[in-house]
């Protein structure tokens, strides 16, 4: 795995342009992609596969390592509902754009009529689905059109101060978005057992699951302080500003990925139809 990781860093990550988005470090996107590469080693990806990615996002953070892993004969169909701003720039810089088919779709209603994919993946995207009903619907759609489904998400666990620093700042995001827009986004992380239940309720049979430590810095809990200034409820605004200031001080000293839980699942077999039983005349 180490040699493959070094090759990925040399052949792909080194081409990703550095960013100028303080207070994030200039190499934050490369580090996030490296974390996705480490997550995907638990997925059964082989060269030549046809892979569906749910929630690719504007920065193609999982799309790039996916496209690298499927090789020249593989394809990644990258789905997102709205976030595409840097996608073309980043995938082209990585030299992998030709392996990717971007599609602007609502993952709750995928247009594919039958199983068209070897694998469907949702990496660090469960938290963006806003409620449990949507989570189950999206996973159900993934199971409907793919032979296997791979899901990975950070867990609400801190084994050191740097992981706790990430969680403290990240956990403010749901409240901030709700206070600003009246609806949740960036949900609090779910325990692995809860993720397993989502998969089962969606009609999946879990093949394998586990957790691992990415052992990398994590910067994406950050949300600008100015967001709190837009909150109309004065009491809520003051409370969130106080909590943000305290959490940001810890985050600034260093934040790290918490443990990541992952699940590999397959669709449950369809029950036999009433007309398919033996023994009739």
TrEMBL record:
Cross-referenced Gene3D superfamilies, in alphabetical order?
Vaccinia Virus protein VP39
* UniProt cross-references to SUPFAM superfamilies, sorted A to Z: S-adenosyl-L-methionine-dependent methyltransferases
This chain's protein is named: Methyltransferase
Q: Per the UniProt entry, what are the Gene Ontology biological process annotations, in alphabetical order?
A: methylation
Keywords annotated in UniProt: Methyltransferase, Transferase
Looking up Pfam families in the UniProt record yields: Ubie_methyltran
GO MF term list: methyltransferase activity
Q: Which organism is it from?
A: Thermococcus siculi
Top-level taxon of the source organism: Archaea
Under InterPro entries, the record lists:
SAM-dependent_MTases_sf (IPR029063)
List the taxonomic lineage: Archaea, Methanobacteriati, Methanobacteriota, Thermococci, Thermococcales
């Amino acid at each position: 795995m180490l040699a493959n990781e070094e090759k990925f860093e040399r052949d792909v990550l080194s081409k990703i342009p550095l960013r100028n988005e303080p207070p994030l470090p200039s190499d934050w996107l490369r580090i996030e992609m490296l974390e996705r590469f480490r997550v995907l080693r638990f997925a059964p990806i082989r060269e030549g596969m046809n892979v569906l990615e749910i929630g690719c996002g504007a920065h193609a953070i999982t799309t790039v390592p996916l496209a690298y892993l499927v090789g020249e004969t593989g394809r990644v169909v990258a789905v997102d509902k709205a976030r595409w701003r840097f996608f073309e720039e980043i995938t082209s810089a990585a030299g992998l754009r030709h392996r990717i088919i971007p599609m602007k779709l609502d993952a709750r209603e995928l247009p594919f009529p039958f199983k068209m994919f070897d694998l469907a993946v949702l990496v660090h995207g469960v938290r963006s689905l806003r409620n449990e009903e949507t989570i189950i619907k999206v996973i159900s759609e993934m199971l409907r059109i793919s032979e296997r489904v791979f899901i990975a998400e950070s867990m609400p666990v801190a084994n050191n101060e740097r992981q706790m620093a990430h969680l403290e700042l990240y956990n403010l995001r749901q409240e901030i978005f709700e206070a600003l827009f009246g609806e949740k986004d960036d949900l609090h992380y779910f325990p692995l057992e809860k993720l397993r239940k989502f998969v089962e309720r969606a009609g999946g049979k879990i093949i394998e699951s586990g957790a691992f430590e990415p052992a990398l810095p994590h910067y994406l809990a950050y949300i600008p302080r100015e967001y709190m200034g837009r909150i109309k409820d004065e009491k809520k605004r003051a409370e969130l500003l106080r909590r943000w200031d305290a959490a940001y001080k810890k985050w600034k000293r260093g934040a790290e990925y918490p443990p990541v839980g992952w699940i590999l699942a397959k669709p449950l077999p369809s029950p036999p139809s009433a007309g398919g039983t033996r023994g009739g005349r």
